[in-house]
Amino acid sequence: MEDSLSGGFAAALLVAIAVATVAEAKTTIEPCSGSDACQALLGYTLYADMKVSEVAALFGGVDPAALLAANALDFGAPGAAHRILPMGLFLRVPARCACSDGVRKSVSTRYAARPGDTLAAVADVVFAGLASADQIRDANGLGASGDADPNDAPLDAGQKLVVPLPCVCFNNSDSNLPAVYLSYVVQVGDTVPAVAASYETTVTDIMNVNAMGGPVAAPGDILAIPLPACASTFPKSASDHGLLVANGTYALTAGNCVQCSCGPGNLDLYCTPASLSGSCPSTQCSNSNVLLGNVSTHATSAGCNVSSCGYGGFINGTITTLLNTGLQPKCPGPHQFPVLTDPPRTVNHDSAFLPPLSAPGPAEAGGVFPGPSSSGKGAPSSSVQGGSFKFPRVPPTHGHGPPGSVSEAPPLLSKPQQILSSFIFCLLLHFHM
Question: Could you state, in order of their start, the residue ranges of all structural domains in the chain?
Answer without folding.
Answer: 2-228+341-416, 243-331
